[in-house]
Amino acid sequence: MYLKDSEAPGTISRTWTASSPRYPFVLGLAAVAPKAGSQGYHQRSGFTCILLEDVFQLGQFIFIVTFTTFLLRCVDYNVLFANQPNNRTRPGLLHNKVTLSDAILPSSQCAQRIHSSSLMVFLLILATAFWLFQLLRSVCNLFSYWDIQVFYREALHIPLGELGSVSWAEVQSRLLALQRSGGLCVQPRPLTELDVHHRILRYTNYQVALANKGLLPTRCALPWGGSVAFLSRGLALNVDLLLFRGPFSLFRGGWELPDAYKRSDQRAALAARWRRSVLLLAAVNLALSPLVLAWQVLHAFYSHAELLRREPGALGTRRWSRLARLQLRHFNELPHELRARLARAYRPAAAFLRAAAPPAPLLALLARQLVFFAGALFAALLVLTVYDEDVLAVEHVLTAMTALGILATVARSFIPDEQAQSRSPQLLLQAALAHMHYLPEETGPAGKASAYRQMARLLQYRAVSLTEELLSPLLTPLFLLFWFRPRALEIIDFFHHFTVDVAGVGDICSFALMDVKRHGHPQWLSEGQTEASLSQRAEDGKTELSLMRFSLVHPQWRPPGHSSKFLGHLRGRVQQDAATWGANSVRSPPTPGVLSNSSSPLPETFLANLLVQPLLPPQDLSPTAPCPAAATASLLASISRIAQDSSCVSPGGTGGQKLAQLPELASAEMSLHAIYLYQLHQQQQQQELWGEASASSLSRPWSSPPQTLSPDEEKPSWSSDGSSPASSPRQQWRTQRAQNLFPGGFQEPTDTQKEPSQAPSID
């Protein structure tokens, strides 16, 4: 294996040995794993499934275009609706009913009607060109996936038949072992798990950081107050084209940010050029919006018609929004890991929304009456239909029955569930936090309503999601013009200050290093360990929680110095609080035997039994009350001992069963760590409200003035293990609008703190 100088650091070239065919092929390391957008070879179950999926998608496009053209130009609706007599009735036969063949026009007449419409011919030409483009892209991807299949079979020794039984953790383990044995050579030192994730999630980590800093998703102020977030599939595609993969994107070659973006003397010119790119893309979106809107309507109709017929209330169910998948995602979290975590959080989050829904007795009363009257009319028509099926032939009877059924289903959704309202919203929110690793803020007298609104944005109705996608062709150009274009300077500054060069990987987002010293938050157990300014902190404990999750999922990974110090400090705090709880409480922590004494899987049973008790501190916690974090620390220490002692996992089970439960144990341990960190975070916030932290807030390390860097130190080169040189982090942002975008705001430097003008030289 060797790495060509002209190739990206994330690209692997392999020359097979004498026992293998003598041909080189290029394989992107990111393609070995599930990609953030297309899920990749492993998650798509191999080459055969990928091939069939692409073929079916191309065939689906042909079907929608062909069938829609057929309905518009090849059907005589006057005959179909019996508005005129049928002149094509065959002689000798009496037709009392209109058949489908009577309403379908002959092929010659159908072709003539298509050719007579210039607009129809133009649309068909555009559809054909788009289909050919999709075909070409699919063929190119299939060649890459074929090389990946060969790499899996011959290098990783994973044939296609065994791919479904091999987890991604095993694939990654074999890949790292191959590199350590000399089979791969992408950089002088051995690959780590973090290197692999940096290649796979290079762009995704940037998007998560943009969301954490308030640049994503787009927001629109409402006339009656507040704002609404918007991030449709079309808008996400445009953002991807502008920042990462388009012809005018910031990145060059897919892995390198040009040097101009790494220097501060060209930020104004780069922002002006990016504004022009946004304007051009918005104009293209505006010109194509009628076509895209028509396609969205057709695709939504063909996709949801059968679902609504089978389940009329399907649009009233909730699903995780794109905002949730961006805001709740950790740095370096793969797509299938995020899906599994959100799937576990769905039930408690949905139950919380039902239990915490603001009371609306008048609306519930009207909904009950509407359900009664609609159900009565539907029942009468149904009885008449059972008695004589000819009732269905009466005009609009079937339409009325369908409308009454949908009306009753929609009205029933406004009737509160008495069983759900009897459950404690606090316990349900706690259970959701265990898997979401995010807790909506509950501040002020309207805290419960605020938490409900924040959770409703994350877990939105399917009807709301569908409406956003249908309106996306019309709203996307507006958000490009009025959200992204005015913020061009902030976006350029974001990539300037939060991009680091990792040896052997390329340019990545600095947040992806999960460096507590650089991006930690003092209210998340990082006080005294972080040097991050207000603009450099990751909000909501994103750095600390991401670091903890990654270390638990990859126990073999050795974090760099500052991150390792934070993890050691956290484990020491857990042991200290657990000892305090054991000395002051008569209740003892659960033992391994108690936890494994169940027919259900250990982690699920353990968490289910744990989360029925309140763990989060109440809002009115007094300074003298015992800290609930100590109880969680005691439980966390117990499950940590269980995870380290493999004999405690399913006693009597086979080795495979024990091994299969280890990821679930890591998930349960991460859930407890999330609750524990939120307990400490809320405890510190309450202490600051009491004024106990006022004396120490004046001497915090992040409030010290930034050091002046030389041009050579302005962009430090980071090694791929996350360690940095002795130079301090990149200076704080200097932008005009950041005060409104970022919660902490930007610190405007004084005259003595402003950085000197940089020489126009490239490192």
TrEMBL record:
<keyword id="KW-0072">Autophagy</keyword>
<comment type="function">
    <text>Phospholipid scramblase involved in autophagy. Cycles between the preautophagosomal structure/phagophore assembly site (PAS) and the cytoplasmic vesicle pool and supplies membrane for the growing autophagosome. Lipid scramblase activity plays a key role in preautophagosomal structure/phagophore assembly by distributing the phospholipids that arrive through ATG2 from the cytoplasmic to the luminal leaflet of the bilayer, thereby driving autophagosomal membrane expansion.</text>
</comment>
<feature type="compositionally biased region" description="Polar residues">
    <location>
        <begin position="730"/>
        <end position="739"/>
    </location>
</feature>
<feature type="region of interest" description="Disordered">
    <location>
        <begin position="691"/>
        <end position="763"/>
    </location>
</feature>
<keyword id="KW-1133">Transmembrane helix</keyword>
<feature type="transmembrane region" description="Helical">
    <location>
        <begin position="114"/>
        <end position="133"/>
    </location>
</feature>
<keyword id="KW-0472">Membrane</keyword>
<feature type="transmembrane region" description="Helical">
    <location>
        <begin position="396"/>
        <end position="415"/>
    </location>
</feature>
<dbReference type="GO" id="GO:0034497">
    <property type="term" value="P:protein localization to phagophore assembly site"/>
</dbReference>
<dbReference type="GO" id="GO:0006869">
    <property type="term" value="P:lipid transport"/>
</dbReference>
<dbReference type="GO" id="GO:0061709">
    <property type="term" value="P:reticulophagy"/>
</dbReference>
<dbReference type="Pfam" id="PF04109">
    <property type="entry name" value="ATG9"/>
</dbReference>
<feature type="compositionally biased region" description="Low complexity">
    <location>
        <begin position="717"/>
        <end position="729"/>
    </location>
</feature>
<dbReference type="GO" id="GO:0005776">
    <property type="term" value="C:autophagosome"/>
</dbReference>
<keyword id="KW-0813">Transport</keyword>
<dbReference type="GO" id="GO:0034727">
    <property type="term" value="P:piecemeal microautophagy of the nucleus"/>
</dbReference>
<dbReference type="GO" id="GO:0000422">
    <property type="term" value="P:autophagy of mitochondrion"/>
</dbReference>
<dbReference type="GO" id="GO:0034045">
    <property type="term" value="C:phagophore assembly site membrane"/>
</dbReference>
<feature type="transmembrane region" description="Helical">
    <location>
        <begin position="277"/>
        <end position="298"/>
    </location>
</feature>
<feature type="transmembrane region" description="Helical">
    <location>
        <begin position="362"/>
        <end position="384"/>
    </location>
</feature>
<protein>
    <recommendedName>
        <fullName>Autophagy-related protein 9</fullName>
    </recommendedName>
</protein>
<feature type="compositionally biased region" description="Low complexity">
    <location>
        <begin position="694"/>
        <end position="706"/>
    </location>
</feature>
<keyword id="KW-0445">Lipid transport</keyword>
<comment type="similarity">
    <text>Belongs to the ATG9 family.</text>
</comment>
<dbReference type="InterPro" id="IPR007241">
    <property type="entry name" value="Autophagy-rel_prot_9"/>
</dbReference>
<keyword id="KW-0812">Transmembrane</keyword>
